Structures are given as structure tokens and as C-alpha cells.
């Protein structure tokens, strides 16, 4: 029951991340039930080809990563390897990037950019176009 799990996660101040690999976005849309981040397999229902491995991380964009910076230090505190940049302050729903896109105060992409930038820097993981 995604709604009940969402309520528990919100009470604890943590995001609800749903793996929607088997269900697919056609059968269930977790954001409508309170999920904050959804993980999809692009190899199964979305791509259907199976000739390469891939996945998607989709962020709803309204979770407040900055409310408890100690819980999410890589997103809500300065990151030395990015010259002290705070991902939430720059890419969060109240940051300049949200303002640039016209979504300030509504949605941001802090988690999306953080999960793309940090592993790319550390591991070089990137799908080829």
C-alpha cells in the first residue's frame, strides 16, 4: 500500500522511493499515491528491446531535501568535490534553477542532478546515446 508507506516516510522526514520495474508506469503511477522518487527499468516495459541495460530515476520534485540536511548531506550540505556547492540550494524547488524553469516553490530536481553528477564523477557511469 503505497499511500500508507508514503505517510510513514513523510512522518519520518524521508523520501519514499518506489521500484516500479515490474508494474510499469502503464499499470501504476506511484506519484499519484505519494511516492517521491520512482525507479523504472528501461530494459523491460519501457524499451522492450533487451539489447542494452538501462534504467530511469524519476523525481517528483517536491520533497524538501533541505529540511533535515544531516539526513541528506550529499544533497543538502556543501559538497567539497563540487567546490562547496549545495545541490539543494541550487537545484531544489526554491533554487535558481527552479526559478529559471518557472517552477520555483513547486518542483526542483535536486535528487535527479545529484544522482547523475556524483556517480558520474566517481565511477564514470553513463549510458551512451
Concise synopsis of the structure shown:
By secondary structure, the chain is an alpha+beta fold. Helix content is 38%, strand content 10%.
Furnish the topology, listing elements before pairings.
Layout: H1 2-12, E1 17-19, H2 24-27, E2 37-41, H3 42-46, E3 55-59, H4 73-76, H5 87-91, H6 96-101, H7 110-123
Parallel strand pairs: 1-2
Antiparallel strand pairs: 2-3
Structural category is alpha+beta
Q: Tell me the strand percentage band.
A: 5-15%
Number of distinct helices: 7
Oligomer: single chain
Order of helices and strands: HEHEHEHHHH
Keywords:
single chain; alpha+beta; 129 residues; 38% helix
Describe this protein's structure.
- With 129 residues, the chain is an alpha+beta fold.
- Helices cover 38% and strands 10% of the residues.
- It contains 7 helices and 3 strands.
- α2 links the parallel β1 and β2 (37-41).
